[in-house]
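Title: Comparing notes on inverse folding

I've been comparing how different people in this forum approach sequence design from structure. To keep things fair, I'm posting one structure and asking everyone to reply with a full sequence. Here's the target:
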């Protein structure tokens, strides 16, 4: 194990490689490669758009492609600076930055300290991610995730951002989780409504009810909670989702990183290594808060890794961990309904070699009816993709996994492996189209395959020899799309294609150039965040390599693009500051404002002094029209 001061600066992805190196190649890569090779992708590339069921990469016929563009903006070029850019006729402004007070009992942000520990839960948190806006009796209430911390910025007084004390840990715990905040538009634009009754921070220490099949299981019982029904905190809140009954779904992703052991000789309990839980956490929590010390509280990690449901209309409500949706590194939770009205939640497990899932509730959603329990009772499935463009959702039940429902909920990854799901290249956000029976998932990239990174004890990573593999390095990522059988999200069968294969046509004229809807003018890498607006347009946000060098030349900073699945066209709408990830997107009730998240900005963004501060911005059209 490397020194913690080195590992804390790694990305979560790289850090996980040290915890648990996964196989370089995933099943889904092989499925795509085989299908591409069969269709002569290498020799006949860019001719895939018509007729091919699997690789209808343009998503259209050429006649459709000539239809009038549905993009009400002039696409913008790439940028490499430390600013934000939107098209002519659009404007942006900051709504909330890390450290901005949500309540008047918190002082304004102090860049010398990054704020006091006792105020961490009274201010807008760090590293904004998934978000949703709710119209609560006319108030505009945004629920937004705070995924993780950057200790160099958050603990500026400590050399190298080291975590040195219980106070440091309390501060970091307070800066993560979720913010619920009312925002309002005044003469100076959008701003947080300080002291709104809806304002609330949910952190690593907030009480949560545990519901669903794992509630009360022995593996969830701790000394502080002998019944296994009440957990403290939600962790590494990455992507999000919403239900039609007005609740927010926040998703616990890299929860493993908060746990460690003060006993260096501890033998890890069963199931820890599959989840990347090791002896040393990323932020030294285990040294100062025994709850995160697995030598003292070995069941605490079983209480994290879930989807948590939050009622943004009631700041006193208790968030609920919905264990029926499985315990994985949850990216987001995309809602759909079956033809019969059962809630469906699509979910990705963002780690190389893990799976895509869906949950189908056994209950039916009725507007205005009782919704408690709809996400507690149902069937969890794992996705299986075939090379012929078909696929199936495999139920995770006793017959397929040998586990009872509680164990499926706690050891979901092992259940999915037993059932035979298709391992994927880091499934990030899923989005469900509101206008067509189809859904999309960003497979961000596979940076390990043939990259210069070494794993498995230091062996160089090499492509699989002899495989019909058009893309030994999936450095750019892709977006897979599926169509549920009969147009019913409850169906166990589907067909699939690739909506887009990212690439660099400036540098490559083979498969690394990407699908035929990728051009030198719209290229990007590592699709991650995704939302589909009310018109069916796909908003794609990236979290990739922004060096603008080597294989990434011409791609610039991370960005947000808009795709029209009917024409296949994809256009660049926004670029973020260098160093940042653009993640999280939601709209005001009148759809005239898009709220966008800027995570871990580089340089001194936004104001050129002090510390770089993760922020939510508002983007509007100068003519006051709707934006999506
Ligand atoms: Fe938190 Fe997978 O992104
Ligand atoms: Ca993400
Ligand atoms: Ca990512």
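Reply #1:
Here's my take.
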């Amino acid at each position: 194990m490397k020194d913690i001061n080195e590992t804390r600066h790694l990305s979560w992805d790289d850090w996980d490689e040290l915890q648990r190196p996964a196989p370089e190649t995933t099943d889904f890569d092989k499925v795509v490669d085989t299908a591409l090779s069969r269709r002569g992708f290498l020799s006949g590339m860019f001719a895939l758009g018509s007729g091919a069921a699997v690789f209808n990469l343009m998503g259209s016929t050429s006649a459709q492609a000539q239809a009038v563009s549905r993009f009400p903006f002039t696409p913008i070029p790439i940028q490499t600076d430390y600013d934000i850019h939107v098209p002519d006729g659009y404007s942006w402004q900051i709504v909330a930055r890390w450290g901005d007070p949500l309540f008047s009992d918190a002082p304004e942000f102090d860049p010398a300290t990054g704020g006091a520990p006792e105020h961490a839960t009274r201010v807008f948190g760090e590293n904004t991610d998934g978000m949703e806006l709710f119209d609560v009796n006319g108030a505009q209430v945004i629920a937004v995730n705070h995924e993780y911390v950057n200790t160099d910025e958050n603990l500026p007084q400590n050399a190298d951002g080291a975590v040195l004390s219980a106070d440091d840990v309390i501060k970091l715990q307070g800066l993560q989780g979720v913010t619920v905040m009312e925002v309002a538009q005044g003469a100076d634009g959008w701003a947080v409504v300080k002291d709104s009754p809806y304002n609330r921070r949910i952190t690593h220490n907030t009480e949560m009810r545990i519901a669903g099949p794992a509630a009360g299981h022995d593996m969830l019982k701790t000394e502080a909670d002998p019944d296994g029904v009440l957990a403290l905190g939600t962790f590494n809140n990455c992507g999000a989702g919403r239900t039609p009954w007005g609740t927010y779904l926040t998703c616990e992703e890299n929860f493993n990183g908060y746990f460690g052991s003060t006993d260096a000789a501890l033998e890890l309990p069963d199931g820890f290594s599959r989840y990347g839980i090791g002896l040393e956490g990323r932020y030294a929590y285990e040294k100062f808060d025994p709850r995160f010390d697995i030598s003292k509280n070995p069941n605490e990690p079983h209480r994290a890794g879930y989807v948590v449901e939050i009622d943004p209309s009631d700041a006193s409500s208790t968030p609920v961990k919905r264990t029926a949706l499985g315990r994985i590194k949850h990216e987001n939770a995309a809602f759909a309904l079956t033809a019969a009205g059962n809630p469906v939640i699509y979910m990705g497990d963002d780690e190389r070699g893990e799976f895509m899932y869906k949950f189908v509730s056994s209950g039916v959603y009725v507007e205005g009816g009782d919704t408690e329990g709809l996400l507690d009772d149902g069937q969890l499935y794992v996705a299986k993709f075939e090379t012929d463009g078909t696929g199936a959702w495999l139920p995770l039940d006793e017959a397929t996994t040998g586990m009872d429902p509680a164990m499926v909920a706690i050891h979901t990854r092992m259940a999915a492996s037993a059932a035979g799901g298709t391992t994927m290249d880091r499934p990030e956000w899923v989005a469900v189209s509101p206008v067509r029976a189809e859904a999309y998932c960003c497979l961000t990239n596979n940076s390990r395959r043939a990259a210069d990174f070494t794993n498995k004890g230091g062996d160089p990573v090499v492509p699989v020899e002899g495989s019909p593999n058009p893309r030994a390095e999936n450095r750019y990522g892709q977006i897979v799309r599926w169509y549920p059988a009969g147009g019913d999200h409850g169906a166990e069968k589907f067909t699939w294609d690739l909506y887009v294969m990212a690439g660099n046509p400036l540098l490559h004229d083979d498969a690394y150039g990407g699908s035929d809807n990728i051009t030198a003018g719209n290229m990007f890498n590592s699709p991650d965040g995704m939302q589909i607006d009310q018109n069916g347009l796909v908003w794609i946000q990236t979290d990739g390599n922004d060096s603008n060098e080597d294989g990434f030349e011409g791609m610039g900073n991370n960005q947000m693009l808009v795709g029209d699945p009917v024409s296949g066209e994809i256009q660049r709408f926004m670029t973020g500051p260098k160093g940042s990830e653009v993640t999280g997107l939601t709209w005001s009730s009148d759809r005239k404002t898009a709220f966008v998240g800027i995570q871990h900005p580089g340089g001194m963004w936004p104001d050129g002094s002090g510390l770089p501060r993760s922020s939510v911005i508002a983007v509007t059209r100068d003519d006051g029209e709707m934006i999506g």
